[in-house]
Each structure stands twice: as structure tokens, then as C-alpha cells.
């Protein structure tokens, strides 16, 4: 029976930008890497060879879960400048990524939606500076704030698809490219039904407790370069 590969899009994009920072907003490159790294899971984990060649599983389908980009017009709270988010670099990247993925064979794009209550928030690293007293609220610049958007329907779609693939006996292996514990309920159902459940966190460490809910841990993408610590 074949393998289904499910990809948490938001998580993948964060890790892709960590692995290839120079291509952070290249949708074509992100799509090509996603497809290549996903298909690599079809080779057996140890790269073993037989007389017939490399052991390779059959692909059922790659599922990519994401949301359309923010397309609102909002005013920056610091400068009061109007911003059309549909024209931002992030929006263009997301649209290009989705468009390229739709052209890939055996790849399904599953889109949720963004919550309507998008709000401005101070960036985490700036909040730390404020709490340490290294800057004041009056020092905030235009780039110190960002819009906080929340995805709706993505985790639910992942859970529904894992459950459906499992109960319909369409696959005997599920590979999930993700990094948090939201997948655990679906993983429990899959494993109880005899599905081999593999997690690919793209070199991100996972909490020890998650190991009990998966059958294997395997990453196929290149390891990110270590982050250089800022000089004191």
C-alpha cells in the first residue's frame, strides 16, 4: 500500500526560510524543495539497495495545508501609513508557492482561511527589549510591529485527512511534516489501525513526550546552518 505525505504549510515555510534564507521569498524554489524533500521519504530510511535497486514506496499523494495570504488594507499604528497587504512580498510569495504546487503531480493543496480579527502586535524581540528597559514605547519604529494573523481550519483538515486515509485503508504509511503536538489525536487513531506514522520535523527538536505517539522520526531536508551568536 502507498504512502501519504502531509505537510503543515506554515511550519514548512518557517523551516524552509531557516534552511535557505537567501531564497526566503522565492515561491518557485520553496515548491521545488518541498516536492523533492517529500518524495525522498519514499526511499527506505537507510538507503538500502537490493538487486532491483533502491527500495522505494509508492506515493499516494502529497497534501499541503496552508491559508491564502492576508489581503486586507490596514494602517500601521506607529506611522498611520496605509498598507495593502495583498501587494506585500509575503503575499506574492504565498501566491506563487500555491500556484506552483497546484501544477505538481499527485499534490493536493488544502487551504484553510485566516481569522477576521487580524490585529497589530509588537514583534517578540522588540517586546524583550522593552521588558529589559533597553527601549521605550516612544522609541517604537514602523518595522517594530507586525500583524498577528491566525489560521483557521488547517489543523482540522490535517486531522480529518489522516483519519479518512486510515479508516478507508487507502495507505499503510503516513508521513507528517510538522513540529507541534496538534497532530497527536490523529496519530493515535492511525497507529491503532496499524498505520506506520512517521514525523519529519525538519531538524527541529521535538518534546520527548511526542516520541510515544509516532512510529519513526526522519528528516530528509538539509540541516540548517547554526545561527551565529551576536557579539557582545
Automatic annotation (TrEMBL):
- NYN domain location: 145-195
Q: Which GO terms describe its molecular function?
A: RNA nuclease activity
Q: Which InterPro entries does the annotation name?
A: NYN
Q: Which Pfam families match?
A: NYN (PF01936)
Per the record, the domain of life is Bacteria
What name has this protein been given in UniProt?
NYN domain-containing protein
Task: State the organism named in the record.
Answer: Halomonas korlensis
